[in-house]
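Curious: why this fold?
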Amino acid sequence: MSTVALDVLAVRARFSALDNELVFFDGPGGTQVPDEMIDAIATYLRESNANVSGPYETSRRTERLVADARLAAASFIGGSPDEVVFGANMTTLNFALSRSAAREWAEGDEVLVTRLDHDANVSPWLELAHDLGLVVRFADIREDTTLDLDDLASKLSDRTRVVAFPWASNAVGTLVNVARVAELAHEVGALAWVDAVHYAPHGPIDVAATGADVLICSPYKFYGPHLGLAYAKSALLGRWRPYKVRPASDEPLGHRFETGTLPHELLAGFVAAVEYIDSIGWEAIQAHERELGQRFLDGLPGSCRLYGLDRMDTRVSTFAFNVEGRSPRTVAEHLGERGIAVWQGNYYAVEVMKRLGLDEGAVRAGIVHYNTADEVDRLLGELAAL
């Protein structure tokens, strides 16, 4: 049990967006941002706005910012600055990197994805299969929504080139043993390709410790700007042929896969977001989220059906559920009218919803560290009233 207490009121004071009547349980779709992140973007635009490679001060400041952003990203994911790739969003990066990787493959090669994935780590592989004659296989999940590692292992072969999987489900919150899946992938010579979008706001990432070959996430899910961030091992980035314009530099390695001018102001916001998380600390964040998550689980009315695990040690604080006799849309609209923001539908977790037989999807409430016990109780009270 962590001994680090989070001062949630002090945290909330750093978010002007939280100073209103709306309760934000919509973090899985994008978190609110601290004021220092907003200020960093504005300061860059006021004082340093320029393109790189110019022989003048604002251009040099921008070059220093890009270098600082790579350092911040390397610190956040546990890689090196050369292994960082920035892009528009996770989905765009995944389509781009998967196509670069697939230049080395042949018809009949296989990609293994999971039924726990967000579609941004499924559709890029399905489109490649369409273009190149690849085979996409699906590893199943158990009834409790945990990844079936035995089923995954049984579908590996010497033709498997990639095992694509999530660190945490964006729908039901289930955690995946990343190191174990990476180990299984490497046993057949495949790449471990990790979607960390949903895990990134909930815990520390260390790509070296997990053995991930490629990892992709989205800063706007962890208190930053709308941006995509990817990591790939330097050996891969150096070997893959990128889709790029000819004059663009080949150094650092990750830059080879960044098309066009980067959104420099968003990189400034990204650096501030990483510094914000560092100022709070993962231990305090995780302890607070686990406490609130268990509070939600313990208080969920009997009229609600939870999809996923009922304990916090093997999940993050994202919950999919339905209310008996009510459609997900009806419940979400009811809560929205009462100042509580949740999601409904499938949230692009197409395979999860198919596996659970949820044609209309489910209601999704996501708890992050700026939420409070009172807010959780308010949500539970409204669900009980339904």
